[in-house]
Specification:
By secondary structure, the protein is of the alpha/beta class. Helix content is 36%, strand content 17%. Strand 1, helix 3 and strand 2 form a beta-alpha-beta unit.
Length: 229
């Protein structure tokens, strides 16, 4: 089954993912990181959502650089790329993605990563995408989340840095605060950054509260908290 655009808006893709949720969630891949070479933001959002549902991290690339092949388990693109494991598509079909993964990755190959880098949970797809693209310029193995359910699931993994928007947790603040406090006890090295344009209370889980940040400041925080050694 393919997909349809109604008004070129990313949010219309979410029901498509939800319809296929049972087919994706029982497939869990570990230690797989994909590079996506494509200039269509809606298609990229759909591809990253499909992969994320199966535990696969991914990032958007501007072009293929052979020197970067070692950083990716495979590359997704519309045009065939030689000398690298490559999934090509004209239209996105979930079955095609799953078949490709089942063909090239077996259970014996799955080795859990010790730690991921950054988990991003902002209040809009645009902000998630923007911050992820900037983050990927500094380090790989980063994830974005767009709902509380997936945020809670993502916390089964270890991250070095979490950026969370107050707007997405404020209606369940007590419960989320408890979850993040417990997460910090289990992962004492984690740094949690809370973004809020207004002064907030009862957010003791946050190492730092940000009310505004630009690209240079974000990269400086990544350099401070992400050890790439």
């Amino acid at each position: 089954m393919g997909y349809l655009y109604l008004d070129n808006s990313a949010y219309i893709l979410k029901p498509f993912i939800n319809d296929y949720k049972p087919n994706l969630e029982y497939r869990r891949f570990k230690n797989i990181h994909a590079g996506i070479i494509n200039d269509n933001k809606n298609e990229n959002f759909l591809l990253q959502s499909i992969l994320l549902k199966m535990g696969i991290s991914s990032e958007i690339l501007y072009k293929h650089n052979q020197k970067d092949n070692k950083n990716y388990s495979f590359i997704i693109s519309k045009e065939k790329i030689d000398d690298v494991l490559n999934f090509t598509f004209e239209k996105i079909h979930i079955e095609g993605v799953v078949d490709f993964l089942n063909t090239h990755f077996t259970q014996e190959c799955y080795i859990a990563r010790d730690c991921y880098n950054v988990l991003i949970f902002k209040s809009s797809y645009f902000e998630n995408d923007l911050i992820l693209n900037i983050t990927n310029q500094f380090c790989s193995h980063n994830q974005t989340i767009d709902n509380l359910s997936d945020f809670k699931k993502a916390l089964q993994f270890r991250f070095k840095l979490i950026l969370v928007d107050y707007e997405v947790i404020k209606f369940d603040l007590t419960h989320i605060s408890q979850i993040l406090q417990e997460y910090k006890i289990k992962n004492p090295q984690i740094v949690i950054l809370l973004f809020s344009k207004n002064r907030v209370k009862d957010c003791d889980f946050a190492n730092l509260i940000l009310n505004d940040i630009n690209k240079s400041e974000w990269l400086a925080l990544l350099k401070q908290y992400i050890n790439q050694a």
